[in-house]
Amino acid sequence: MQSTGLKKYKKISNMSTTKLTPILHNWVQNLKSQPSLLREAIEEYGSPLNIHNLEPFYENVNKYNEVFSNLNIQGKAFFARKANRCLSLLTGTHQHNYGIDTASYHELKQSLDQGVSSHNLVVTAAVKPDQLLELAIKNDVLIIIDNQDEVQAISRLADGKKVNVGFRLSGFKFNGSKAYSRFGIDILDAKDFITEHLASHPNLIYKGLHFHLDGYDLDQRRSALSDCIALSRDLEGTEFIDIGGGLLMNYLQSEEEWEAFDKRLRQGISGKSEEVTYRNNGLGYELVNGQVTGKLKTYPYYNNLNKDNALQYILEGEIADQLRAAGIELRIEPGRSLLDQVGFTIAKVIHRKKDQNGDHHIGLEMNMTQMLSGSADFLLDPIVLYNNSENLEPVDVYFTGAYCLERDVLLKRKISLDRLPEVNDLVIFPNTAGYMMHFFESEAHQFPLAKNVFVENKNGVMEFSKDQLSDVRH
Ligand SMILES: Cc1ncc(COP(=O)(O)O)c(C=O)c1O
What we know:
CATH architecture of the largest domain: Alpha-Beta Barrel
Distance between the termini: 49 Å
Helix content: 25-40%
Bound molecules: pyridoxal-5'-phosphate
Number of helices: 12
Radius of gyration: 24 Å
Oligomer: single chain
Strand content: 15-25%
CATH superfamily of the largest domain: Alanine racemase
Number of strands: 22
């Protein structure tokens, strides 16, 4: 029991947070029920460890491909590999019919080295140095142009060679206002920009239009796609329209839990009940003059409409009819949603302590960059694999990391557990393959990067193998 009495609300309940139960794919359930295997893996590869499985990745690819075939339109998913660095995710492009969206020289080089064909590759990098453009040009990889200087650079480096290009657009009007983006060419200027530059650079071969919108609004994507279809009528030779990523995925089992958490968070901030986050972090909400204002600045972890259903929603009806009639291929670049259920992170408990407020801190052998959300928090319950399951006494804890920063608190949310973890227990953070494990990882304090392994069910036996990525350093 928490005993400090320092906080007014602590005495009321020690299960003071709300649950956010993650969805777990069968392979994760399977491994979770074999803690000895996981302990061996941590012994061999170190803590933390990123464990992946390719089955859900291909299931996700197939779901998108089924939408295209059900709507009878040509389409392809290009995996935005910035969301996860593992090389194993590049190996199934031919067999499972997907492509790779690359955002840097090394992403492209590694994809080519893994044998991904040029027609399954696209370069959408935000900044495109000569080294990247040269590699793309040499290998006939489609380049998505963002600005005039890129046109000049491609033209200079191609030296007359034909280069397949698309144009990234932005500034689409939606619900009466124009969406701001620092990327792309304004849709209002697009026709002139494209026709003029194609006329003055005849080696640029126009293939299609591209956008990637900030946020996750499906209606906004539908509307931008409709604008691109309209523009394509003024441009000769549009073979594809690429609507980028941002297709929602669903991390959580229960909408009620998600809504209850939001309510509890706001109550905690307003002081009406005990805080549910570290130092009462509002995760976007703020208390102004006694009122909770602002909005939750995390990923929307619960989504009824997600992945293939989200794509279906964008395309169905007249959009699909128009694409079909025009013979235009619909491309998407999902990162996060293709990685749904593809990986989790597991780490070892090193210490337990109580802070000045009486809150339990569980120190793990990992750091904040090894599971870091671009949003305010990663809102999924972790799973503790206890070595010893006696003395069930519920407790609320924070999981803390190894960096010397006060803010290295791995989850901002306070987590309710059945009992206090012990040293050497393991903690699973589910569904971290998309952005969480790789996007912000760093080697500060000379901590090595986490190893990445893939697990395969071979006749009922779960076998681990190292992703080749572990050996690739730049
Ligand atoms: C151009 C482009 N395509 C695709 C993606 C992937 O988006 P998501 O992982 O949300 O699907 C991004 C993400 O930033 C992007 O910038």
